[in-house]
Amino acid sequence: QVQLVESGGGLVQPGGSLRLSCAASGFTLSNYWMNWVRQAPGKGLEWVSGVTSGDITYYADSVKGRFTISRDNAKNTLYLQLNSLKPEDLAVYYCARVMVGGTGGMDYWGKGTLVTVSP
Fold first, then answer.
1. 59 touches 48 (CB < 8 A)
2. Tens of pLDDT along 19-59?
3. CA distances from residue 79 to 69, 88, 101, 103 in whole angstroms, order as listed
4. Which of 30, 48, 105, 112 can pair with 36 through a Cys bridge, CB separation 3.0 to 4.6 Å?
5. Which residues are CB-neighbours of 71 under 8 A, at least 6 positions away?
6. What whole-number percentage of the chain has pLDDT above 90?
7. What is the predicted pLDDT for the residue at 32?
8. What is the DSSP string of 12-60?
């Protein structure tokens, strides 16, 4: 069955870096558009970044120039490199698979990994 498992979160100081991973199973990652979405405490879901099956990448304005999405097809794993972290980046980060069909809806989600940015 389809499964997404995030890892790599943790506590980092402002200005620091982390790399999040999302291990996929049950489907071929490279065939799908994949997203990273985050949720800060007490707030709604915020789309962060996406990569198409053709490896075109997109970023929210709030993270552009600081975060990088990538994919290792051999490992069937999605990544999000987080640099120059700010306190407002504190959130649970989820990877999600975008449904085929062009609606943009996401049909499978991981359980998330927590990123805490604090001095």
1. yes
2. 999 999 999 999 999 999 999 999 999 999 999 999 999 99
3. 6, 20, 24, 23
4. 48
5. 29, 30, 34, 51, 55, 77, 78, 79
6. 94
7. 95
8. E-TT--EEEEEEEESS-GGGS-EEEEEE-TTS-EEEEEEE-TT--EEE-
**Contact criterion met (CB below 8 Å) for 53 and 33:** yes
CB 37 within 8 A of CB 94: yes
Beta carbons of 76 and 22 less than 8 angstroms apart:
no
pLDDT of 71 reads 96
Contact 84, 102 (CB under 8 A): no
Give the position of tokens 């499964």. Answer: 3
Gap between the Cα atoms of 34 and 36, Å rounded: 7
For residue 82 the two structure tokens come to: 């987080």
- Predicted local confidence at residue 59, as pLDDT: 98
Q: What does the pLDDT average to over 47-76?
A: 97
Residues 101-109 have a mean pLDDT of 85
